[in-house]
C-alpha cells in the first residue's frame, strides 16, 4: 500500500490507542488516587467509590454512540473523529488537574465524574467513527486489513498504559505515586489526544461519504428514524458483538486478575503473561484482516465462534491449573488466536452492513449497547460466579454467548464484496445486512 493509505490507517485508528490508554490507566491507577478524592480511613470503600465512577463510563457509551454516530452521519466522519478526540483530551485534562478531597472536598469527585462521563461519550463514539472511516477510506480489497488496525491501536494503548505503570512503579516511591505521580499518565494521555486532534484536523473526508453528501443525501440520515428502517442490521451488530466482546474482555482485562486470584499465580508473573499475550495478539490482527480480504469475513467469524463455543471451558479450566509462566502464556495465546477471528474484522463487517447515510450511527449505537450489556459486565459476571462458588459457570457463560453469535455467523451472508459506493446510493447491492448480491462489485472493482 502507498504512503497515503498508511496515513489514513494511522489517523483513523490512532484515537483508539489514546482512548484505551486513558481507559486502562484510570482502572490501573485507581488504587493510587482513590484516597485523594474521598475521606481517608477506609481504603476499600474509597477504591469501590472510584471504580463506581469508572462504571459510569460504560453507561455513557451508548449515549456517546448515539450522539457521535449522528454527528458522523450528518456532519461527516472527520467531524465525528475530531469531536471524539476533543472529548478525550478534555477528560484526561480534567482528571490530571482534579482537586483532592483536602483542597475542595467532594468537588474533586464531581470533576472526576464529569471526566468519566466525557470519556464514556468519547469511547462510545470513537469505535464507530474509526470503524466507518477505516472501512470507507480503504480500497475494496483491503478493507479487512485496514480495519484490523482498530484493534492493533486499542491493544497498543493497553500495552502503553501497562508499560508506563511498570516504569512508574519501578522509578517512583509508593508515597509519590499516591501523592502526585498518578497524574502523570493522564497528562500524557491529554498530550497524546492533542497530537491526534492535530492529525485529524488535517484529514480528508472519505470519498464514499462526500459522494453521499451531495445529490444522494437523505435528510433523515443519522437519525433514530433512519436506523429503525434497518432494524435487522442493528440486531445483527448486537448479535455479532455479543460473543466477541465477552471473549475479548475475558482474555484481556480480566485475564491478569484470573491468573492471580483463581490460578494462584503471583501478580508480576500474571502481568507478564498478559503483556506478552496481548503483544502477540496485536501482531496477529493485520494478518487475520488480510486473510479475510482473500477468503471472506464469515470463515474467520465462524472459526472464532466455534473455537470459543467448544474450547473456552477447557482453556479456562487448564489456565486455572497452569501454575507457571509458559503454560499460562501458551493457553492465553491460544485463546487470543481464537478471539482474533472476531476482533480483526468486526469493524468492517459491521460497517459493511449499512448504507452510507446511517453507517456511523448503525455501527455505534447497537455496538455500544451490546458492549455495555456483555463486555462491560463480563468481569462482574465472572466475579459473581466466583463468589457463588461456581466459577466454572462463567466459562459456560462465555461459551454460550459465543454459541449465540455462531448462529448469526452461520446464517448471515458474506459482506466482503459489497460496493460501499452503491450501498450508499441504495441502488441495488445492499440486501438488508445479509451481504452482497450478485450485482456487487468484486474486491478490486470499486474506488478506494
From TrEMBL:
The record's SUPFAM superfamilies line, in alphabetical order, gives:
MFS general substrate transporter
This protein's source sits in the domain of life called Bacteria
- Which residue ranges does the record annotate as region Disordered? 428-448
Topology of the protein relative to the lipid bilayer: Multi-pass membrane protein
Output the Pfam families linked to this UniProt entry.
Answer: Sugar_tr
- Chain ranges passing through the membrane: 20-38, 50-68, 180-199, 234-251, 271-288, 300-319, 325-345, 357-374, 394-412
Q: Which GO terms describe its molecular function?
A: symporter activity
InterPro entries the UniProt entry points to = H+-coupled_symporters (IPR051084), MFS_dom (IPR020846), MFS_sugar_transport-like (IPR005828), MFS_trans_sf (IPR036259), Sugar_transporter_CS (IPR005829)
- List where in the cell it is found: Cell membrane
Sorted alphabetically, the Gene Ontology cellular component annotations on this record are:
plasma membrane
Query: Which CDD domains did the record assign?
Result: MFS_KgtP (cd17367)
Q: What spans are recorded as compositionally biased (Low complexity)?
A: 437-448
Which terms are listed as keywords in the entry?
A: Cell membrane, Membrane, Symport, Transmembrane, Transmembrane helix, Transport
Coiled-coil intervals, chain numbering:
none
Q: What is its main location?
A: membrane
Domain (Major facilitator superfamily (MFS) profile) spans: 8-417
Family per record: Belongs to the major facilitator superfamily. Metabolite:H+ Symporter (MHS) family (TC 2.A.1.6) family.
Name the job this protein performs: May be a proton symporter involved in the uptake of osmolytes such as proline and glycine betaine.
Name used for this protein in its record: Putative proline/betaine transporter
Amino acid at each position: 500500500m502507498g504512503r497515503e493509505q498508511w496515513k489514513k490507517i494511522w489517523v483513523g485508528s490512532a484515537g483508539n490507542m489514546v482512548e484505551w490508554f486513558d481507559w486502562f490507566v484510570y482502572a490501573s491507577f485507581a488504587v493510587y488516587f482513590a484516597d485523594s478524592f474521598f475521606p481517608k480511613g477506609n481504603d476499600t470503600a474509597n477504591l469501590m467509590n472510584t471504580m463506581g465512577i469508572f462504571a459510569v463510563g460504560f453507561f455513557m457509551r451508548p449515549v456517546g454512540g448515539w450522539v457521535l454516530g449522528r454527528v458522523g452521519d450528518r456532519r461527516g466522519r472527520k467531524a465525528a473523529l475530531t469531536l471524539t478526540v476533543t472529548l478525550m483530551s478534555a477528560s484526561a485534562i480534567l482528571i490530571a488537574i482534579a482537586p483532592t478531597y483536602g483542597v475542595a472536598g467532594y468537588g474533586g469527585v464531581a470533576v472526576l465524574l464529569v471526566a468519566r462521563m466525557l470519556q464514556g461519550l468519547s469511547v462510545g463514539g470513537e469505535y464507530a467513527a474509526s470503524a466507518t472511516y477505516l472501512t470507507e477510506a480503504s480500497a475494496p480489497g483491503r478493507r479487512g486489513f485496514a480495519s484490523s488496525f482498530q484493534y492493533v491501536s486499542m491493544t497498543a494503548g493497553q500495552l502503553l498504559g501497562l508499560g508506563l505503570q511498570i516504569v512508574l512503579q519501578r522509578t517512583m516511591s509508593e508515597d509519590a505515586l499516591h501523592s502526585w505521580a498518578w497524574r502523570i499518565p493522564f497528562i500524557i494521555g491529554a498530550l497524546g489526544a492533542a497530537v491526534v486532534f492535530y492529525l485529524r484536523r488535517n484529514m480528508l473526508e472519505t470519498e464514499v461519504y462526500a459522494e453521499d453528501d451531495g445529490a444522494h443525501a437523505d435528510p433523515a440520515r443519522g437519525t433514530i428514524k433512519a436506523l429503525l428502517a434497518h432494524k435487522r442490521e442493528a440486531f445483527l451488530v448486537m448479535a455479532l458483538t455479543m460473543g466477541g466482546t465477552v471473549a475479548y474482555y475475558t482474555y484481556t482485562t480480566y485475564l491478569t486478575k484470573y491468573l492471580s486470584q483463581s490460578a494462584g499465580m503471583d501478580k508480576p508473573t500474571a502481568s507478564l503473561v498478559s503483556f506478552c499475550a496481548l503483544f502477540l495478539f496485536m501482531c496477529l490482527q493485520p494478518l487475520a484482516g488480510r486473510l479475510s480480504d482473500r477468503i471472506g469475513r464469515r470463515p474467520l467469524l465462524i472459526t472464532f465462534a466455534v473455537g470459543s463455543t467448544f474450547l473456552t471451558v477447557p482453556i479456562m479450566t487448564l489456565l486455572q491449573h497452569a501454575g507457571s509462566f509458559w503454560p499460562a502464556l501458551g493457553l492465553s495465546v491460544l485463546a487470543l488466536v481464537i478471539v482474533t477471528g472476531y476482533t480483526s474484522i468486526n469493524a468492517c463487517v459491521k460497517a459493511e452492513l449499512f448504507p452510507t447515510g446511517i453507517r456511523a450511527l448503525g455501527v455505534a449505537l447497537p455496538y455500544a449497547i451490546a458492549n455495555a450489556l456483555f463486555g462491560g459486565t463480563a468481569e462482574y459476571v465472572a466475579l459473581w460466579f466466583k463468589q457463588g462458588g461456581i466459577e466454572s459457570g462463567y466459562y459456560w457463560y462465555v461459551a454460550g454467548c459465543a454459541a449465540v453469535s455462531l448462529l448469526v455467523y452461520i446464517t448471515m451472508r458474506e459482506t466482503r464484496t459489497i460496493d460501499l459506493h452503491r450501498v450508499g446510493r441504495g441502488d441495488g447491492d445492499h440486501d438488508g445486512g445479509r451481504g452482497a448480491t450478485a450485482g456487487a462489485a468484486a474486491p478490486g472493482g470499486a474506488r478506494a
